[in-house]
Write a structure and sequence with these properties.
Elements lengths: L1 E5 L10 E9 L2 E4 L7 H9 L10 E5 L7 E6 L8 H17 L4 E5 L5 H18 L19 E5 L9 H19 L7 H9 L8 E6 L1 H7 L2 H7 L7 E8 L7 E5 L1 E5 L8 H4 L7 H16 L4 E11 L11 E3 L5 E3 L7 H16 L3 E6 L4 H6 L4 E5 L2 H14 L3 E3 L17 E2 L7 H10 L7 E5 L5 E2 L9 E2 L4 H10 L5
Parallel strand pairs: 1-7, 2-5, 2-6, 6-7, 10-12, 10-15, 11-12, 14-18, 15-19, 16-17
Antiparallel strand pairs: 2-3, 4-5, 8-9, 9-12, 13-14, 16-19, 20-21
Bound molecules: ligand BES, magnesium ion and zinc ion.
The site of zinc ion has 6 residues, from strand 11.
Length: 494
């Protein structure tokens, strides 16, 4: 989508629709723009109360004497409630309304806002438009059922020089959309090899990116015993991908680790049928890391980041790894697998240990669809997160607030570690069934040593059953905006 600024209302282009913003005061809509010549158009809907300016409310009108055939009245709610996140959702509502009429170009009157917030809200407005402009229609065969996307938007009353952030935001939105595509597509298409290839292709974007893919042989040679165990039942081979972005010469990179389970049946500890339906999304963490590395390369940020992606399918079959058996990890610790469905922590354990050994990370952060329990605790819009380092935790929470990618810190409660003791190995991979997200995090913590580390459990927020705000249904693409915001803040004084 192309967004441009245009100073004058009179000389605007003839587009499909004119979008007019309104605030709400009391129960009444108040126009948020100055053009008087438009007043007669919406007199009646406002007088009759058919449109009240409520946040995300949309109402179509028709006019003969305008450059646009349709007019969309857009509610922004009370001016005092207009946060950046609300602004993103308002523009998503506008985009959805426009697309429902197959409108692909629109003139948007930029709302009059106090100077102090105008810049930030202008950016959020664009973010909302860009992030909501997504549809996964690739597998639809009937043309009519494909969704229209917005292709051109002109912001009236905005100067082009105020929109310098657009280039960055377009990169971010495209990276989020790449994540959504990877998560939404078939598991038989998005295999460990395909994820590795997608990562490899990032080398074309920047000379600062270098990608190394370990195949099964190399993974065996490296002795990543837990990744190998999980992969045993799968027809496809596992991969382990290292993506290095050297945007600075720092010798202590930030290491990002993404869970890349391209399908999770649960293995021999088989999942119930309905729990499996969304398990092609079990590589959402890996996709978020790939999306982040893509954005880093294109934004050319001055940071040193290494992305690690352990990837396999957790399949059921005669070769599957077995509950009750003990497997050797890359770190040297042995693990008694009590439940083959707790596989994410196994592949992550090997990747985290690899990160510690090879990179001396300044920070290490993993992102994973690790537990179903996190959505029991926090619901589907909020990710769980854990951290061993207060500064890191604070920076991640700041990034969350800035981007609207919600997360909530949960405790690494040490006494529960007792539950992971095994009679025959160094660790078991599950606890007593309660506090499932904490148990997953405590297991991972055993593999990070003293490195300042955070774990983000997106078992909740990586997938939505229904659209919400600027998220379409299914894959949300969370992680990229959070990570980029976090990485941008590194080096800046807080
Ligand atoms: N990939 C799942 C977690 C998951 C479930 C993410 C639902 C998103 C939605 C993970 O591998 C898993 O199966 N975890 C188990 C752990 C349990 C066996 C301790 C779970 O959450 O039930
Ligand atoms: Mg599982
Ligand atoms: Zn899983």
């Amino acid at each position: 989508m192309k967004i441009v600024g245009w100073k004058s209302f009179q000389t605007r282009k003839s587009f499909d629709c004119l979008v007019l913003p309104f605030f709400q005061e009391g129960k009444k809509a108040i126009k948020a723009f100055s053009q008087k010549e438009l007043d007669a158009l919406f007199l009646e809907p406002l007088r009759l109360g058919d449109f009240s300016g409520k946040r995300e409310e949309t109402f179509f009108l028709y006019a003969n004497d305008l450059k646009e055939k349709r007019i969309l009245l857009l509610g922004m709610g009370s001016a005092s409630d207009l946060t950046q996140e609300n602004m993103r959702s308002i523009m998503a509502a506008a985009n959805l309304a426009l697309r429902s009429k197959k409108i692909s170009s629109a003139n948007v009157l930029f709302p009059a806002l106090p100077k102090s917030v105008s810049k930030d809200l202008m950016r959020s407005l664009c973010e909302g438009l860009l992030l909501s402009n997504y549809a996964f229609d690739k597998l639809k065969q009937e043309e009519e059922s494909k969704k229209t996307l917005l292709s051109e938007v002109t912001l009236i009353g905005v100067e082009q020089k105020d929109l310098l952030f657009l280039e960055q935001d377009q990169i971010l939105a495209d990276s989020v959309h790449l994540v959504r595509d990877l998560v939404n597509d078939n598991a038989d298409f998005v295999t460990p090899q395909m994820l590795a290839k997608t990562a490899k292709d990032l080398e074309k974007l920047s000379k600062k990116i270098k990608v190394t893919v370990f195949d099964k042989k190399r993974i065996e040679k490296e002795k990543m015993g837990l990744l190998l165990a999980v992969s045993k039942g799968a027809f496809v081979d596992p991969t382990f991908t290292v993506i290095e972005y050297a945007g600075s010469s720092s010798t202590n990179p930030v290491v990002l680790v993404g869970k890349g389970l391209t399908y999770d049946t649960g293995g021999l500890s088989l999942k119930p049928t309905t729990s499996m339906e969304t398990m092609k999304s079990d590589m959402a963490g890996a996709a978020a890391v790939i999306g982040t590395m893509r954005a880093l390369a294109l934004l050319d940020l001055p940071v040193h980041v290494v992305g690690l992606i352990p990837s396999t399918e957790n399949a059921i079959g005669s070769r599957s790894y077995k509950p009750g058996d003990v497997y050797m990890s890359y770190s040297g610790k042995s693990v008694e697998v009590m439940n083959t469905d707790a596989e994410g922590r196994l592949v992550l354990a090997d990747a985290l240990a690899y990160g510690v050994k090879h990179y001396k990370p300044s920070y290490m952060i993993d992102i994973a669809t690790l537990t179903g329990a996190v959505s029991i605790a926090l619901g589907e819009e909020i990710a769980g997160f854990f951290a061993t380092d207060e500064h890191l935790a604070k920076q991640i929470e700041k990034a969350s607030q800035a981007t609207g990618e919600l997360l909530w810190r949960l405790p690494l409660y040490a006494p529960y570690l007792e539950q992971l003791k095994s009679d025959i190995a160094d660790l078991k991979n599950i606890g007593n069934g309660k506090g499932g997200s904490i148990m997953g995090a405590l297991f991972l913590k055993e593999f990070v040593g003293k490195v300042p580390w955070a774990h983000i459990d997106i078992g909740s927020s990586s997938w939505l059953a229904k659209p919400k705000g600027y998220y379409t249904s299914h894959a949300t693409g969370v992680g990229v905006r959070l990570f980029i915001n976090f990485l941008e803040s590194l080096g800046k004084k807080s």
